[in-house]
Amino acid sequence: MKTELVRAGGKFQVKTIKRLGDSKAIQAKIKKEDWNDYHITAKGFHLVHRINGVVTADCTDNDAKQRRATGLLALQLHAGPPMTVQFRKIRVKRLGKKVSARRLSLPDLPQISFSDLPTPNAVADRVAEETGGVATEAVRAFLGLPGDVRDAVVSTPEKRTLPPTTEGGKLIRKVRSTRARGLRFLATPLRSAIVAAEEAVETVKKKGSR
What is the dihedral of CA 64, 40, 26, 80, to 10 degrees? Predict the structure, then answer.
């Protein structure tokens, strides 16, 4: 039965809402002398019982005087002739609050272009500002564009002013500075070639503009 527990005129009553199905058909789903799956869902004061996936009871307890929001979980054995009842694979799951679809809907996102995104070096510098420079090397390596490599092949390296840092951060900055100087030394021939190529391009442009 689907029922509702109510109190009318101070008296407790069980109000039948409807039949859930034919009793014999439901009984036929229960396995005699075998394991049966018993599932109870309790949402507030609404209780639904299922045996082997078939709903056998649907009860809403609206008796505010006698109902209880907390209590014991117990395994029941009815009185009667000698019998053996066994239980296994008992699981209890706490149900969370439902989140409405409206709360899950995403807001309209602004249209952005790739040109609006910060450069990898800008991202690394921002991380350096917020972590005291400690994570700068890791971020640059992850982004795949180490700033020191770029600075090694350009005529004028980009100057960055970073905030004070921890002792660990100072050590990493010292290592970076040493590596940067080494990279610039090794890249001197390449840098000279780049400068020569740029000068040749400028010469061609000047001749073409005459």
Answer: -80
